[in-house]
Amino acid sequence: MFRDPSLFGRKGRLMKECIHWLDLGLIGYDEAFSLQRRLHEGCWKGTHGDAVLFQENQPVITLGRSGREEHLLWTPERLEAAGIEVREVGRGGDVTYHGLGQIVISPILHFRRYVSTALDYLRALEETVIRLLAGYGLAAGRIEGKTGVWAGGLKVAAAGVAVSHGITMHGLAVNIRPDMEHFSAIVPCGLRGMGVTSLKLLGRGDLSYARVRDDWLAAFESVFGLSAVEWDPKTAPAGTYTPTGKG
């Protein structure tokens, strides 16, 4: 059973942790991942504190550590014609699609400040999306033995993380209104017979990227028991991007 990390955090904690967030807007996967790695390094070296990155990627398929080539269903020629790139990444999980109409959320944080294990952390991330959807009047939850968040038996948010030096990378991808045909290029997360859905297909096509971002931040604060503030460009690490205010 999921336990709210904010209820079993560090003993004697009187003040909420503060974490910065930064919106990269629409960006290529390689450029965004390079920035994520630099922020991860700065976090474990103590150059700056924990952070959350938001982004919307140009179409890309990512293969996680357990990714299998047979779960990539389109030919290289068809992928190229559709403008979809393929990348191998160091997160857990199998194959995932990112593209327009989807919000990708990457917390870079010392997860043991909030939970005891990496599995607890993954469950906590899923809980943020469950609460997000509940706020939209949508019932969502987990399927035993599988990661991500599901609504009506279909996956609406994928989850996959990596941990190095006790600090997380990667995170969540929530489908707002992506091109659903692109998901036919893969066996999503390596789960045959398990489909995907989006907030639009669930009846909330009115939701904007910025609305989902802000509402997710509120759910994140609630689950992790922290306070998230927008990163001031004057204090953000060199080479990062100013928030876009994307609507």
List the helices and strands and how they pair.
Elements: E1 17-27, H1 29-45, E2 51-57, E3 60-63, H2 76-82, E4 85-88, E5 95-98, E6 102-108, H3 118-135, E7 149-151, E8 154-164, E9 167-175, H4 209-224, E10 226-230
Question: What does the model show?
Answer:
The protein has about 250 residues and is of the alpha/beta class. The protein has one domain (about 15-60, about 100-230): BirA Bifunctional Protein, domain 2 (2-Layer Sandwich), CATH 3.30.930.10. About 25% of the residues lie in helices and about 25% in strands. It has helices at about 30-45, 75-80, 120-135, 210-225, and strands spanning about 15-25, 50-55, 60-65, 85-90, 95-100, 100-110, 150, 155-165, 165-175, 225-230. A seven-stranded mixed sheet has the order 7-8-9-6-2-1-10. Strands 4-3-5 form a three-stranded mixed sheet, with no helix packed on it. Strand 3 (about 60-65), helix 2 and strand 4 (about 85-90) form a beta-alpha-beta unit.
Q: Look at the structure and give the CATH class.
A: Alpha Beta
For CATH, the homologous superfamily is named as Bira Bifunctional Protein, Domain 2
* CATH structural architecture: 2-Layer Sandwich
**Class computed from helices, strands and strand pairing:** alpha/beta
Please give the alpha-carbon distance between the first and last residues.
36 Å
